[in-house]
Amino acid sequence: MPEATHVGSGKIRELYELDSERLLLVASDRISTFDVVLPTEIPDKGRVLTGLSGFWFARTRELVPNHLLALRPDGRSTECRRLEMLALECVVRGYLAGSGWKDYRATGAVCGHVLPERLGESARLPEPIFTPSTKAQEGHDENIDREQAEALVGAERFAEVERTALDLYRLASEHAASRGVLIADTKFEFGIDAEGRLLLADEAFTPDSSRFWPADEYEPGRSQPSFDKQFVRDYCESVDWDKTHPGPELPDEVVAGTRARYVEAFGRLTGIDFEDYLANPEVVLG
Predict the structure, then answer these.
(1) Helices (H), 16-80
(2) pTM over 0.90
(3) Where are the alpha helices (H) located in the chain, listed in sequence order?
(4) By C-alpha distance, which of 193, 164, 277, 188 is closest to 23?
(5) pLDDT at 95 exceeding the cut of 80
(6) In the sheet where 77-81 sits, what is the strand order?
(7) What is the C-alpha to C-alpha distance for residues 283 and 52, in angstroms, rounded to an integer?
(8) Are strands 77-81 and 68-71 parallel, antiparallel or unpaired?
(9) Is residue 128 a contact partner of residue 169, using CB atoms and an 8 Å limit?
(10) How far is CA 42 from CA 37, 91, 190, in A?
(11) How far apart are CA 227 and CA 172, in angstroms?
(12) How far apart are CA 89 and CA 34, in angstroms?
């Protein structure tokens, strides 16, 4: 990309500068588990993330503006606004899973939200809850409570982020349920533009940032089948690995099964055939 200057690498994305106001975000096919990028890639994963994010950005922009300017023909590159990113991972949980389930078992609460007693794994919560975490540059993000989050971004901005994240979750959950998918939880990143407005950034409601469960197989009290990276996490838990770099190579059947789950999530949520997206990425923008 002769018109772009590489300025950074994340676990999954490469970041390029186009000019003083625009960035290019390129989603690779890398996959990470337990904060370690694995040596095996998942074909087309980056295109699924980019396409789903574009789909949601287009359908939530009346609720909150976002960084999307254009999708490029490769299906994995996004031209976006340059923002000052908030130092928070903004997680909304509608069901008790992952680190939320772990915290609940230990304390009966998640990020300061005291929950009803005797909830089981994967239980639906009475209301969705906003559970921020730190945005760790290295190592694991850590769940924090409201007071700690307000100290990072200010009370007024925190209230805006919390309200916006919950509204986004409710909107997407209603759509997903109509397509046979439960969004157990999801993670957002927000940034601030030059005018001080809050914008949704990075990605939105993808298999990397969310837990997607098939609604017709949902059964509280156990872990759930999913259309996300849980399939890879389960494999990594089954092998002799200490969750430090380098991660294990993934066998062909895990690669194929993961790709199939990501593509199914794309099709179920968008109603668009993945091959149609590959031929014309802008189809997701409606």
Answers:
(1) 45-60
(2) yes
(3) 45-60, 98-107, 146-153, 155-178, 230-238, 252-270, 274-279
(4) 193
(5) yes
(6) 5-9, 13-17, 22-27, 77-81, 68-71
(7) 11
(8) antiparallel
(9) yes
(10) 12, 25, 27
(11) 16
(12) 16
| HSE-up of residue 235 (Cα within 13 Å, Cβ side) | 20
What is the reported pLDDT for 144?
86
Q: Which of 206, 160, 163, 201 is nearest to 183 (CA)?
A: 206
The Cα–Cα gap between 155 and 161 comes to: 10
Omega of the bond leading into 220 within 30 degrees of 0 (cis)? no
**Sequence-distant (≥ 6) Cβ neighbours of residue 4 within 8 angstroms:** 16, 17, 18, 24
On average, the pLDDT of the chain sits at 95
Pairing type for strands 36-37 and 32-33 reads antiparallel
Token code pair at residue 213 = 């469960």
Q: How far apart are CA 151 and CA 162, in angstroms?
A: 14
Query: Which two three-digit tokens encode residue 209?
Result: 């940032």
Average pLDDT, integer, range 88-109:
94
Q: How many CB atoms lie within 10 A of CB 9?
A: 13
What's the confidence (pLDDT) of residue 94? 98
Distance CA 113, CA 195 (A): 33
